Amino acid sequence: MTRVALIAHDEKKPDIIDLVREYEDLLATFDLVGTGTTGKRITEETDLDVERKQSGPLGGDTQIGAEVADDALDGIVFLRDPLTAQPHEPDISALLRICDVHDVPLATTRTGAEYLLDGLALDADFDLDP
């Protein structure tokens, strides 16, 4: 089964919820993992189940990076706030590096996330048309 990680900085959490709602039918066919707060918000605001790791400041992004190293993830959506990210929020540098090493796609913008999810839908032979 396709496995995707979902992460968002605080200011981008509404954006990831909007993205997840738009792609909910597709994401329902995937195994989802997320950092603590992002995963909690997604499960509270949609009908999706998300395996929750620790929150970002407690190492959730590192736990997700370990899944990349273990070849257990097919892609990551990390909607980050490049302008007002807080010191307690996860840093993308280590996650980006491990994704590059293991050739796992990582999207940091809404448009990039849409391309990533559309590509995974093609791999999963999922019909995106309603």
Automatic annotation (TrEMBL):
Instruction: Provide one Gene Ontology biological process annotation.
Output: pyrimidine nucleotide biosynthetic process
Q: Which Pfam families match?
A: MGS (PF02142)
Per its record, how is this protein called by name?
A: Methylglyoxal synthase
* InterPro entries, A to Z: Methylgl_synth, Methylglyoxal_synth_AS, MGS-like_dom, MGS-like_dom_sf
**Annotated HAMAP family:** Methylglyoxal_synth (MF_00549)
MGS-like domain span = 1-130
Protein EC: 4.2.3.3
User: In which family does this protein belong, per the annotation?
Assistant: Belongs to the methylglyoxal synthase family.
**Cellular component, GO annotation:** cytosol
Role played: Catalyzes the formation of methylglyoxal from dihydroxyacetone phosphate.
Origin species: Halomicrobium zhouii
What lineage, starting at the top, does this entry show?
Answer: Archaea, Methanobacteriati, Methanobacteriota, Stenosarchaea group, Halobacteria
Any one GO MF annotation of this record: methylglyoxal synthase activity
- Annotated keywords: Lyase, Pyrimidine biosynthesis
Show the active-site residues.
Answer: 61
Q: Where does substrate bind?
A: 9, 13, 35-38, 55-56, 88
Q: Which CDD domains match?
A: MGS
**Reaction catalysis annotation:** dihydroxyacetone phosphate = methylglyoxal + phosphate
Record keywords: tRNA processing included? no
